[in-house]
Amino acid sequence: MIGITHFETFLIAGILLNITPGNDTIFILTRSIAHGQKAGIMSVLGISTGSLIHTIFAALGLSIIVAQSVLLFHLLKYAGAAYLLYMGYKMLTEKTLLNTERAAAVKTNDHLRIYKDGVFTNVLNPKVALFFIAFLPQFIDPTVKNTVWPFLVLGITFTITGALWCLFLAIFASGIFAKLKENKQISGYINKICGAVFIGLGLKVAI
């Protein structure tokens, strides 16, 4: 493949990295368990969109600017942490029970909000930007003058394999939602638990 070396190795390494649990995985699982399969799928699409944005940034060299600027790095870091804390607070204070009525009442706007949450949490994570500019170049031919195309191919490949794995997780987690939504005693605590997880993620990112 033009401009790309050891693509098979990259594919295997990418899959292994994608199935390693991280912040994105937790985000998708919590959304799927708290709001069902459609919400889980929208969260996967949001995370994948964020990954594609990072791919474009890395291809154009913008991620290198972030990596070299301590100020920009920390601004993105704390913005991402604040957003996670905000989502956690919203879920902790939401009074609606996780039941059949709530699942049926979820509107398109709610799914769009979940999609945007996925995009923001991924884009505002500077560690993802650093990952792309550190990992992808290992599989780009150093003799190639124009690295934009190889960056895009590798980034899109990584995003697709990650999306497939995350869709599996979303469907699996939404099965838990389907079993719990009828139990009001348990379902009343689901949002609280998920909210606490987001707050924990926010603190983890900030620290």
Task: Name a few traits of the molecule.
207 residues, mainly alpha, 0% strand
How would you characterize the overall build of this protein?
It is a single chain. The protein is mainly alpha-helical. It has one domain (23-206). Helix content is 81%, strand content 0%. Helix 3 runs antiparallel to helix 9 (148-180). The longest helix has 33 residues, at 148-180. It is globular. Mean pLDDT is 79; it is low at 97-105.
Write the layout of secondary structure elements.
Blueprint: H1 7-18, H2 23-35, H3 37-60, H4 62-68, H5 70-93, H6 100-105, H7 108-123, H8 126-135, H9 148-180, H10 184-206
Helix pairs in contact: 1-9, 2-3, 2-7, 2-9, 2-10, 3-7, 3-8, 3-9, 4-5, 4-8, 5-7, 5-10
| Structural class estimated from helices and strands | mainly alpha
Q: Tell me about the largest β-sheet.
A: none
Low-confidence stretches: 97-105
Number of helices: 10
Brief rundown of the structure:
The chain is an all-alpha fold.
